[in-house]
Amino acid sequence: MKTINLIILICISFLFLACQDKDNNNISSKKKYENQIITIITPNFDKKITGPIKKEAKKFEEETGATLRIVYPSWDDMVPMIKESLDDDRINYDIFVVFSSWGGSILSKDNAQEIPDWVKRKIDWDDVLPIYKEYVLSWNKKDFFLPYDGDCVNLYYRKDILSNKIYKQKFKKEFGYELSVPKTWKEFNDISKFFNDWDWDDDGEIEYGFAGSRRKGYGTILLFFTQAAAYAKYPNDKEFYFDKDMNPKINNPAFVKALDEYIAIMKYAPKQINNFSPAEVRQSFIAGEVVLAIDWADLGTMAQNSKESLVKDKVGFATLPGSNQVYNSKTSKWENIYNSPSSISGNWVFVVNKKTKNKQLAFDFASYMSSKEMTTKLITKGSSGINPSRYSHLTNNFEQWKENGFSKQLAKEYLNTISNELSNKNVLIDIRIPGADMYYSSFDKYINKAIKGELSSKEALDLTAKEWNEITQKLGLEKQKKFYKESINE
Asked: Which of 206, 260, 307, 380 would be 404's cystine partner, CB 3.0–4.6 Å?
Protein backbone atom coordinates (compact mmCIF):
# COMPACT_ATOMS: atom_id res chain seq x y z
CA MET A 1 0.00 0.00 0.00
CA LYS A 2 2.84 2.35 0.86
CA THR A 3 4.44 1.54 -2.47
CA ILE A 4 1.22 2.40 -4.36
CA ASN A 5 0.88 5.69 -2.46
CA LEU A 6 4.50 6.54 -3.26
CA ILE A 7 3.94 5.88 -6.97
CA ILE A 8 0.79 8.07 -6.96
CA LEU A 9 2.70 10.87 -5.18
CA ILE A 10 5.52 10.71 -7.72
CA CYS A 11 3.04 10.87 -10.63
CA ILE A 12 1.27 13.89 -9.11
CA SER A 13 4.65 15.59 -8.64
CA PHE A 14 5.63 15.02 -12.28
CA LEU A 15 2.23 16.30 -13.42
CA PHE A 16 2.61 19.43 -11.29
CA LEU A 17 6.12 20.10 -12.61
CA ALA A 18 4.96 19.60 -16.19
CA CYS A 19 2.14 22.12 -15.72
CA GLN A 20 4.57 24.57 -14.11
CA ASP A 21 6.97 24.21 -17.08
CA LYS A 22 4.09 24.81 -19.46
CA ASP A 23 3.13 27.99 -17.56
CA ASN A 24 6.75 29.17 -17.63
CA ASN A 25 6.93 28.57 -21.39
CA ASN A 26 3.76 30.62 -21.88
CA ILE A 27 5.26 33.48 -19.87
CA SER A 28 8.56 33.43 -21.77
CA SER A 29 6.82 33.30 -25.15
CA LYS A 30 4.74 36.39 -24.41
CA LYS A 31 6.04 39.24 -26.53
CA LYS A 32 7.27 42.51 -25.07
CA TYR A 33 4.38 44.75 -26.13
CA GLU A 34 1.58 42.26 -26.49
CA ASN A 35 -1.85 43.93 -26.22
CA GLN A 36 -0.31 47.42 -26.41
CA ILE A 37 -1.47 49.77 -29.16
CA ILE A 38 -0.05 53.04 -30.49
CA THR A 39 -1.23 55.30 -33.29
CA ILE A 40 1.19 57.02 -35.69
CA ILE A 41 0.28 59.94 -37.94
CA THR A 42 2.40 60.41 -41.07
CA PRO A 43 1.69 61.96 -44.49
CA ASN A 44 0.12 59.89 -47.25
CA PHE A 45 3.14 59.45 -49.49
CA ASP A 46 3.54 56.27 -51.48
CA LYS A 47 7.11 55.02 -51.20
CA LYS A 48 8.84 58.09 -49.80
CA ILE A 49 9.05 58.74 -46.04
CA THR A 50 5.88 56.83 -45.14
CA GLY A 51 6.61 53.76 -47.29
CA PRO A 52 9.46 52.47 -45.06
CA ILE A 53 7.35 53.17 -41.95
CA LYS A 54 4.49 50.99 -43.22
CA LYS A 55 6.86 48.20 -44.19
CA GLU A 56 8.89 48.21 -40.97
CA ALA A 57 5.79 48.53 -38.76
CA LYS A 58 4.72 45.03 -39.79
CA LYS A 59 8.11 43.58 -38.82
CA PHE A 60 8.05 45.48 -35.53
CA GLU A 61 4.58 44.11 -34.74
CA GLU A 62 5.69 40.53 -35.42
CA GLU A 63 8.75 40.86 -33.21
CA THR A 64 7.20 42.72 -30.27
CA GLY A 65 3.50 41.83 -30.30
CA ALA A 66 2.54 45.51 -30.45
CA THR A 67 -0.25 46.86 -32.63
CA LEU A 68 0.72 49.91 -34.67
CA ARG A 69 -2.11 51.88 -36.19
CA ILE A 70 -0.92 54.18 -38.97
CA VAL A 71 -3.00 57.17 -39.98
CA TYR A 72 -1.79 58.80 -43.20
CA PRO A 73 -3.75 61.89 -44.25
CA SER A 74 -2.98 63.94 -47.35
CA TRP A 75 -0.32 66.64 -47.16
CA ASP A 76 -3.00 69.34 -46.95
CA ASP A 77 -4.86 67.57 -44.14
CA MET A 78 -1.80 66.67 -42.08
CA VAL A 79 -1.30 69.92 -40.14
CA PRO A 80 -5.03 70.54 -39.47
CA MET A 81 -5.35 66.98 -38.12
CA ILE A 82 -2.33 67.44 -35.85
CA LYS A 83 -3.71 70.75 -34.55
CA GLU A 84 -7.13 69.22 -33.99
CA SER A 85 -5.61 66.38 -31.96
CA LEU A 86 -3.71 68.83 -29.76
CA ASP A 87 -6.95 70.58 -28.83
CA ASP A 88 -9.15 67.48 -28.47
CA ASP A 89 -8.33 64.85 -25.83
CA ARG A 90 -10.48 62.32 -27.66
CA ILE A 91 -7.98 62.24 -30.53
CA ASN A 92 -4.66 60.71 -29.59
CA TYR A 93 -1.62 60.20 -31.78
CA ASP A 94 1.25 58.59 -29.91
CA ILE A 95 3.84 59.45 -32.57
CA PHE A 96 3.91 62.36 -35.01
CA VAL A 97 6.05 61.99 -38.14
CA VAL A 98 6.40 65.59 -39.20
CA PHE A 99 8.16 68.10 -41.42
CA SER A 100 10.48 69.99 -39.07
CA SER A 101 8.58 73.25 -39.65
CA TRP A 102 5.48 71.69 -38.10
CA GLY A 103 7.21 70.89 -34.80
CA GLY A 104 6.49 74.24 -33.20
CA SER A 105 2.75 73.58 -33.17
CA ILE A 106 3.32 70.44 -31.09
CA LEU A 107 5.81 72.09 -28.75
CA SER A 108 3.66 75.18 -28.19
CA LYS A 109 0.93 72.95 -26.75
CA ASP A 110 3.46 71.14 -24.53
CA ASN A 111 2.74 67.86 -26.34
CA ALA A 112 6.30 66.84 -27.27
CA GLN A 113 8.18 64.47 -24.99
CA GLU A 114 11.84 65.29 -24.50
CA ILE A 115 14.10 62.46 -25.71
CA PRO A 116 15.31 60.38 -22.74
CA ASP A 117 18.95 59.34 -22.40
CA TRP A 118 18.23 55.65 -23.00
CA VAL A 119 16.77 56.51 -26.40
CA LYS A 120 19.79 58.66 -27.27
CA ARG A 121 22.07 55.75 -26.43
CA LYS A 122 19.93 53.39 -28.48
CA ILE A 123 20.04 55.52 -31.64
CA ASP A 124 23.72 56.54 -31.17
CA TRP A 125 22.98 60.24 -30.69
CA ASP A 126 26.69 61.16 -30.91
CA ASP A 127 26.67 59.95 -34.52
CA VAL A 128 24.04 62.55 -35.52
CA LEU A 129 25.52 65.59 -37.27
CA PRO A 130 25.71 68.76 -35.12
CA ILE A 131 23.92 70.90 -37.73
CA TYR A 132 20.76 68.81 -37.29
CA LYS A 133 21.04 68.67 -33.52
CA GLU A 134 21.20 72.46 -33.32
CA TYR A 135 18.75 73.53 -36.01
CA VAL A 136 16.29 70.66 -36.47
CA LEU A 137 16.16 68.27 -33.50
CA SER A 138 16.24 70.73 -30.61
CA TRP A 139 14.08 73.54 -29.30
CA ASN A 140 15.22 76.02 -26.68
CA LYS A 141 18.37 73.87 -26.29
CA LYS A 142 16.40 70.70 -25.44
CA ASP A 143 16.09 67.66 -27.71
CA PHE A 144 12.57 66.66 -28.77
CA PHE A 145 12.86 65.34 -32.33
CA LEU A 146 14.34 62.02 -33.46
CA PRO A 147 16.29 62.12 -36.76
CA TYR A 148 14.74 60.24 -39.69
CA ASP A 149 15.45 62.23 -42.85
CA GLY A 150 18.26 64.77 -42.90
CA ASP A 151 17.64 67.20 -45.73
CA CYS A 152 20.01 69.49 -47.54
CA VAL A 153 19.69 71.13 -50.96
CA ASN A 154 22.41 70.66 -53.58
CA LEU A 155 23.36 71.62 -57.13
CA TYR A 156 23.27 68.88 -59.79
CA TYR A 157 24.86 69.25 -63.22
CA ARG A 158 25.71 67.24 -66.32
CA LYS A 159 29.46 66.85 -65.96
CA ASP A 160 29.79 65.36 -69.45
CA ILE A 161 28.21 68.48 -70.97
CA LEU A 162 29.99 71.13 -68.87
CA SER A 163 33.35 69.48 -69.69
CA ASN A 164 32.73 69.46 -73.47
CA LYS A 165 35.66 71.37 -75.04
CA ILE A 166 33.64 72.84 -77.92
CA TYR A 167 30.95 74.08 -75.56
CA LYS A 168 33.56 75.54 -73.26
CA GLN A 169 35.07 77.55 -76.13
CA LYS A 170 31.66 78.83 -77.29
CA PHE A 171 30.63 79.73 -73.74
CA LYS A 172 33.81 81.71 -73.08
CA LYS A 173 33.37 83.59 -76.35
CA GLU A 174 29.80 84.55 -75.41
CA PHE A 175 30.19 85.29 -71.68
CA GLY A 176 33.88 86.12 -71.27
CA TYR A 177 34.76 83.53 -68.63
CA GLU A 178 35.38 79.77 -68.38
CA LEU A 179 32.46 77.36 -68.37
CA SER A 180 32.55 75.42 -65.08
CA VAL A 181 30.33 74.50 -62.15
CA PRO A 182 28.48 77.72 -61.20
CA LYS A 183 29.71 79.40 -58.03
CA THR A 184 27.11 82.20 -58.12
CA TRP A 185 23.47 82.45 -59.15
CA LYS A 186 24.56 84.80 -61.96
CA GLU A 187 26.76 82.03 -63.37
CA PHE A 188 23.87 79.58 -62.90
CA ASN A 189 21.71 81.94 -64.97
CA ASP A 190 24.38 82.30 -67.71
CA ILE A 191 24.83 78.54 -68.04
CA SER A 192 21.07 78.00 -68.14
CA LYS A 193 20.79 80.60 -70.90
CA PHE A 194 23.65 79.11 -72.93
CA PHE A 195 22.24 75.57 -72.93
CA ASN A 196 18.61 76.49 -73.41
CA ASP A 197 16.50 75.40 -76.37
CA TRP A 198 18.93 73.38 -78.50
CA ASP A 199 20.08 69.78 -78.89
CA TRP A 200 23.31 69.80 -76.88
CA ASP A 201 23.47 66.02 -76.38
CA ASP A 202 22.86 65.11 -80.05
CA ASP A 203 19.89 62.86 -79.36
CA GLY A 204 17.58 64.56 -81.84
CA GLU A 205 15.62 66.29 -79.05
CA ILE A 206 15.62 69.90 -77.87
CA GLU A 207 17.05 70.33 -74.36
CA TYR A 208 16.98 73.16 -71.84
CA GLY A 209 19.11 74.99 -69.33
CA PHE A 210 17.71 74.07 -65.91
CA ALA A 211 14.80 72.50 -64.05
CA GLY A 212 13.32 74.07 -60.93
CA SER A 213 10.16 73.87 -58.86
CA ARG A 214 7.61 76.59 -59.69
CA ARG A 215 4.26 74.92 -58.99
CA LYS A 216 2.27 76.21 -56.03
CA GLY A 217 3.39 74.33 -52.91
CA TYR A 218 6.13 73.76 -50.35
CA GLY A 219 8.79 72.72 -52.88
CA THR A 220 8.65 76.06 -54.69
CA ILE A 221 8.61 78.01 -51.43
CA LEU A 222 11.57 76.25 -49.83
CA LEU A 223 13.68 76.29 -52.98
CA PHE A 224 13.01 80.01 -53.39
CA PHE A 225 14.30 80.64 -49.87
CA THR A 226 17.31 78.46 -50.72
CA GLN A 227 18.19 80.83 -53.56
CA ALA A 228 17.27 83.97 -51.62
CA ALA A 229 19.64 82.97 -48.81
CA ALA A 230 22.63 83.90 -50.99
CA TYR A 231 21.45 87.53 -50.87
CA ALA A 232 19.49 87.68 -47.61
CA LYS A 233 21.16 85.25 -45.15
CA TYR A 234 23.84 87.46 -43.65
CA PRO A 235 26.71 85.48 -42.05
CA ASN A 236 26.37 84.90 -38.30
CA ASP A 237 22.81 86.27 -38.28
CA LYS A 238 20.28 83.58 -37.36
CA GLU A 239 17.34 85.90 -38.04
CA PHE A 240 16.28 85.30 -41.64
CA TYR A 241 12.49 85.46 -41.97
CA PHE A 242 11.85 87.93 -39.13
CA ASP A 243 13.92 90.17 -36.90
CA LYS A 244 13.93 89.60 -33.13
CA ASP A 245 10.72 91.62 -32.78
CA MET A 246 8.91 89.49 -35.40
CA ASN A 247 9.02 92.19 -38.08
CA PRO A 248 9.07 90.36 -41.43
CA LYS A 249 12.24 90.70 -43.50
CA ILE A 250 10.56 89.04 -46.47
CA ASN A 251 10.13 92.26 -48.49
CA ASN A 252 13.61 93.74 -48.07
CA PRO A 253 15.76 94.38 -51.20
CA ALA A 254 17.52 91.01 -50.96
CA PHE A 255 14.30 89.00 -51.19
CA VAL A 256 12.98 91.22 -53.99
CA LYS A 257 16.17 90.69 -56.01
CA ALA A 258 15.97 86.93 -55.42
CA LEU A 259 12.33 86.71 -56.52
CA ASP A 260 13.03 88.80 -59.63
CA GLU A 261 15.74 86.30 -60.60
CA TYR A 262 13.68 83.26 -59.58
CA ILE A 263 11.02 84.33 -62.08
CA ALA A 264 13.26 85.70 -64.87
CA ILE A 265 15.27 82.48 -65.23
CA MET A 266 12.14 80.45 -65.98
CA LYS A 267 12.55 81.24 -69.69
CA TYR A 268 15.59 78.92 -69.72
CA ALA A 269 13.64 75.90 -68.45
CA PRO A 270 11.27 73.39 -70.08
CA LYS A 271 8.08 75.08 -71.28
CA GLN A 272 5.93 73.35 -68.64
CA ILE A 273 8.01 74.64 -65.70
CA ASN A 274 4.95 76.33 -64.16
CA ASN A 275 3.72 72.82 -63.37
CA PHE A 276 7.03 71.58 -61.92
CA SER A 277 7.17 70.43 -58.31
CA PRO A 278 10.35 68.71 -57.03
CA ALA A 279 9.02 65.41 -58.46
CA GLU A 280 8.92 66.85 -61.99
CA VAL A 281 12.35 68.47 -61.51
CA ARG A 282 13.81 65.06 -60.76
CA GLN A 283 12.11 63.40 -63.71
CA SER A 284 13.25 66.15 -66.07
CA PHE A 285 16.85 65.90 -64.95
CA ILE A 286 17.13 62.10 -65.02
CA ALA A 287 15.48 62.11 -68.47
CA GLY A 288 18.44 64.15 -69.75
CA GLU A 289 16.28 67.18 -70.47
CA VAL A 290 18.35 69.82 -68.63
CA VAL A 291 21.96 70.64 -67.72
CA LEU A 292 21.35 72.01 -64.19
CA ALA A 293 18.97 71.35 -61.32
CA ILE A 294 18.59 72.38 -57.70
CA ASP A 295 17.10 69.74 -55.42
CA TRP A 296 17.40 67.83 -52.18
CA ALA A 297 19.73 64.83 -51.94
CA ASP A 298 17.02 62.61 -53.47
CA LEU A 299 18.06 63.59 -57.00
CA GLY A 300 21.59 62.29 -56.52
CA THR A 301 20.40 58.77 -55.74
CA MET A 302 17.61 58.81 -58.33
CA ALA A 303 20.06 59.73 -61.08
CA GLN A 304 22.02 56.55 -60.37
CA ASN A 305 19.49 53.93 -59.27
CA SER A 306 16.21 54.91 -60.94
CA LYS A 307 15.23 52.58 -63.79
CA GLU A 308 14.16 55.62 -65.82
CA SER A 309 17.49 57.45 -65.49
CA LEU A 310 19.29 58.28 -68.74
CA VAL A 311 22.08 60.15 -66.96
CA LYS A 312 23.77 57.42 -64.93
CA ASP A 313 27.47 58.20 -64.38
CA LYS A 314 27.02 61.58 -66.10
CA VAL A 315 26.03 63.64 -63.05
CA GLY A 316 28.16 65.95 -60.96
CA PHE A 317 27.30 67.21 -57.47
CA ALA A 318 28.15 70.60 -55.99
CA THR A 319 27.31 72.92 -53.13
CA LEU A 320 24.79 75.66 -53.76
CA PRO A 321 25.70 78.74 -55.79
CA GLY A 322 26.22 81.94 -53.84
CA SER A 323 26.46 85.66 -54.49
CA ASN A 324 29.23 88.26 -54.51
CA GLN A 325 26.90 90.59 -52.61
CA VAL A 326 24.85 90.10 -49.46
CA TYR A 327 22.30 92.41 -47.86
CA ASN A 328 22.85 93.44 -44.25
CA SER A 329 19.35 94.04 -42.90
CA LYS A 330 20.70 95.62 -39.72
CA THR A 331 22.46 98.41 -41.65
CA SER A 332 20.09 98.30 -44.66
CA LYS A 333 23.12 98.14 -46.97
CA TRP A 334 24.57 95.73 -49.52
CA GLU A 335 28.07 94.43 -48.77
CA ASN A 336 30.50 93.15 -51.41
CA ILE A 337 31.44 89.80 -49.88
CA TYR A 338 30.99 86.28 -51.25
CA ASN A 339 28.09 84.59 -49.50
CA SER A 340 27.04 80.99 -50.05
CA PRO A 341 24.80 79.61 -47.29
CA SER A 342 23.71 75.98 -47.22
CA SER A 343 20.04 75.03 -46.93
CA ILE A 344 18.67 72.30 -44.68
CA SER A 345 15.04 73.09 -45.42
CA GLY A 346 12.76 70.10 -45.04
CA ASN A 347 13.73 67.21 -42.71
CA TRP A 348 11.33 64.56 -41.45
CA VAL A 349 11.44 63.76 -37.75
CA PHE A 350 9.67 61.55 -35.20
CA VAL A 351 8.05 63.19 -32.17
CA VAL A 352 6.61 61.21 -29.28
CA ASN A 353 3.46 62.65 -27.74
CA LYS A 354 3.97 63.61 -24.12
CA LYS A 355 0.46 62.33 -23.37
CA THR A 356 0.92 58.83 -24.78
CA LYS A 357 -0.03 56.01 -22.43
CA ASN A 358 2.56 53.71 -24.02
CA LYS A 359 5.62 55.91 -23.87
CA GLN A 360 8.24 53.14 -23.95
CA LEU A 361 6.59 51.45 -26.93
CA ALA A 362 6.32 54.77 -28.78
CA PHE A 363 9.98 55.58 -28.19
CA ASP A 364 11.00 52.02 -29.09
CA PHE A 365 9.36 52.25 -32.51
CA ALA A 366 10.53 55.83 -33.10
CA SER A 367 14.10 54.85 -32.23
CA TYR A 368 13.82 51.70 -34.36
CA MET A 369 12.97 53.84 -37.42
CA SER A 370 15.52 56.58 -36.68
CA SER A 371 18.37 54.22 -35.77
CA LYS A 372 21.74 54.26 -37.48
CA GLU A 373 21.06 50.81 -38.94
CA MET A 374 17.65 51.69 -40.40
CA THR A 375 18.57 55.07 -41.87
CA THR A 376 21.83 53.71 -43.30
CA LYS A 377 19.82 51.13 -45.20
CA LEU A 378 17.39 53.76 -46.54
CA ILE A 379 19.69 56.61 -47.63
CA THR A 380 21.07 54.73 -50.66
CA LYS A 381 17.61 54.28 -52.17
CA GLY A 382 16.20 57.27 -54.05
CA SER A 383 12.67 55.94 -53.60
CA SER A 384 12.84 56.14 -49.78
CA GLY A 385 13.05 59.93 -49.51
CA ILE A 386 15.53 59.48 -46.65
CA ASN A 387 18.78 61.49 -46.89
CA PRO A 388 21.98 61.45 -44.79
CA SER A 389 21.92 62.91 -41.28
CA ARG A 390 24.85 61.17 -39.54
CA TYR A 391 28.63 61.08 -39.58
CA SER A 392 28.47 57.38 -40.44
CA HIS A 393 26.16 58.08 -43.39
CA LEU A 394 28.89 60.18 -44.99
CA THR A 395 31.91 57.96 -44.44
CA ASN A 396 30.96 54.28 -44.48
CA ASN A 397 28.94 51.65 -46.34
CA PHE A 398 30.42 52.05 -49.82
CA GLU A 399 29.43 48.46 -50.57
CA GLN A 400 25.81 49.37 -49.96
CA TRP A 401 26.12 52.33 -52.31
CA LYS A 402 27.65 50.00 -54.90
CA GLU A 403 24.63 47.71 -54.63
CA ASN A 404 22.47 50.71 -55.50
CA GLY A 405 24.22 51.80 -58.69
CA PHE A 406 27.11 53.92 -57.38
CA SER A 407 30.79 53.32 -57.94
CA LYS A 408 32.92 53.94 -54.86
CA GLN A 409 34.30 57.13 -56.43
CA LEU A 410 30.86 58.48 -57.33
CA ALA A 411 29.52 57.71 -53.86
CA LYS A 412 32.45 59.63 -52.37
CA GLU A 413 31.77 62.63 -54.63
CA TYR A 414 28.08 62.63 -53.71
CA LEU A 415 28.69 62.25 -49.98
CA ASN A 416 31.53 64.80 -49.95
CA THR A 417 29.19 67.38 -51.48
CA ILE A 418 26.59 66.72 -48.81
CA SER A 419 29.29 66.80 -46.12
CA ASN A 420 30.50 70.19 -47.36
CA GLU A 421 26.95 71.58 -47.32
CA LEU A 422 26.40 70.29 -43.80
CA SER A 423 29.70 71.73 -42.54
CA ASN A 424 28.73 75.27 -43.55
CA LYS A 425 28.38 77.62 -40.57
CA ASN A 426 26.00 79.89 -42.50
CA VAL A 427 22.87 77.77 -42.82
CA LEU A 428 19.25 78.36 -43.82
CA ILE A 429 16.61 76.62 -41.71
CA ASP A 430 12.83 76.56 -41.88
CA ILE A 431 10.25 78.62 -40.03
CA ARG A 432 9.51 76.34 -37.06
CA ILE A 433 7.31 78.45 -34.81
CA PRO A 434 3.58 77.86 -34.27
CA GLY A 435 1.70 79.07 -37.32
CA ALA A 436 4.57 78.14 -39.67
CA ASP A 437 2.03 76.56 -42.01
CA MET A 438 0.10 79.84 -42.06
CA TYR A 439 3.17 81.95 -42.84
CA TYR A 440 4.20 79.53 -45.60
CA SER A 441 0.67 79.36 -47.02
CA SER A 442 0.53 83.15 -47.21
CA PHE A 443 3.84 83.34 -49.03
CA ASP A 444 2.83 80.49 -51.33
CA LYS A 445 -0.25 82.45 -52.41
CA TYR A 446 1.65 85.59 -53.34
CA ILE A 447 4.76 84.02 -54.87
CA ASN A 448 2.43 82.05 -57.14
CA LYS A 449 0.80 85.29 -58.28
CA ALA A 450 4.26 86.75 -59.00
CA ILE A 451 5.29 83.65 -60.95
CA LYS A 452 2.12 83.93 -63.04
CA GLY A 453 2.85 87.62 -63.71
CA GLU A 454 -0.18 88.87 -61.77
CA LEU A 455 1.99 90.81 -59.31
CA SER A 456 5.51 92.23 -59.37
CA SER A 457 8.04 90.73 -56.97
CA LYS A 458 7.88 93.80 -54.73
CA GLU A 459 4.07 93.81 -54.68
CA ALA A 460 3.93 90.10 -53.83
CA LEU A 461 6.46 90.42 -51.01
CA ASP A 462 4.87 93.57 -49.55
CA LEU A 463 1.52 91.76 -49.41
CA THR A 464 3.22 88.75 -47.80
CA ALA A 465 4.84 90.95 -45.13
CA LYS A 466 1.51 92.61 -44.39
CA GLU A 467 -0.22 89.24 -44.01
CA TRP A 468 2.62 87.83 -41.89
CA ASN A 469 2.16 90.70 -39.46
CA GLU A 470 -1.56 89.93 -39.28
CA ILE A 471 -0.82 86.24 -38.57
CA THR A 472 1.62 87.21 -35.82
CA GLN A 473 -0.91 89.52 -34.17
CA LYS A 474 -3.60 86.84 -34.38
CA LEU A 475 -1.34 84.26 -32.68
CA GLY A 476 -0.01 86.78 -30.15
CA LEU A 477 3.05 88.95 -30.76
CA GLU A 478 4.77 88.29 -27.44
CA LYS A 479 4.18 84.54 -27.70
CA GLN A 480 5.57 84.46 -31.24
CA LYS A 481 8.64 86.47 -30.24
CA LYS A 482 9.29 83.97 -27.47
CA PHE A 483 8.77 80.96 -29.74
CA TYR A 484 10.95 82.44 -32.50
CA LYS A 485 13.82 82.93 -30.09
CA GLU A 486 13.42 79.38 -28.76
CA SER A 487 13.18 77.90 -32.26
CA ILE A 488 16.60 79.23 -33.23
CA ASN A 489 18.04 78.26 -29.81
CA GLU A 490 18.86 81.85 -28.87
From this structure: 380
Please give the Cα distance from 87 to 93 (Å, whole number).
Answer: 12
147 and 185 inside one domain: no
Same domain, 285 and 434: yes
pLDDT of residue 15 exceeding 50, the answer is: no
Task: Write the CB contacts of 235 (distance below 8 Å, at least 6 apart in sequence).
Answer: 326, 337, 339, 425, 426
* Dist. CA 117–CA 123, nearest whole Å: 10
Q: 274-278, 295-299, 397-401, 418-422: which has the minimum mean pLDDT?
A: 397-401
Residue 22 resides in a domain: no
Binned at pLDDT 50, 70 and 90, residue 396 comes out as low
Residue 14 inside a domain? The answer is no
| CATH number of the domain encompassing residue 206 | 3.40.190.10
pLDDT in tens, 276-289: 999 999 999 999 99
Q: Let me know whether 145 and 246 are in one domain.
A: no
CA distance 103 to 70: 19
The pLDDT score that the predictor gives to residue 261 is 98
Query: pLDDT tens digit string along 37-79?
Result: 999 999 998 789 999 999 999 999 999 999 999 999 999 999 9
Beta bridge partners of 410: none
Do 56 and 91 have their domain in common? Answer: yes
Domain contains 64: yes
Residue 75 lies in a domain: yes
Please state the three-class secondary structure of the chain as a single string. CHHHHHHHHHHHHHHHHHHHHHHHHHHHHCCCCCCCEEEEECCCCCCCCHHHHHHHHHHHHHHHCCEEEEECCCHHHHHHHHHHHHHCCCCCCCEEEEEHHHHHHHHHCCCECCCCHHHHHHCCHHHECHHHHHHCCEECCEECCEEEECCCEEEEEEHHHHCCHHHHHHHHHHHCCCCCCCCEHHHHHHHHHHCCCECCCCCCCCEEEEECCCCCCHHHHHHHHHHHHHHHCCCCCCCCCECCCCCECCCCHHHHHHHHHHHHHHHHCCCCHHHCCHHHHHHHHHCCCEEEEEEECHHHHHHHHCCCCCCCCCEEEECCCEECCEEECCCCEEECCCECCEECCCCEEEEEECCCCCHHHHHHHHHHHCCHHHHHHHCCCHHHCCCCCEHHHHHCCHHHHHHCCCCHHHHHHHHHHHHHHHCCCCEECCCCCCCHHHHHHHHHHHHHHHHCCCCCHHHHHHHHHHHHHHHHHHHCHHHHHHHHHHHCCC
Tell me the residue range of the domain where 389 lies.
37-151+345-396
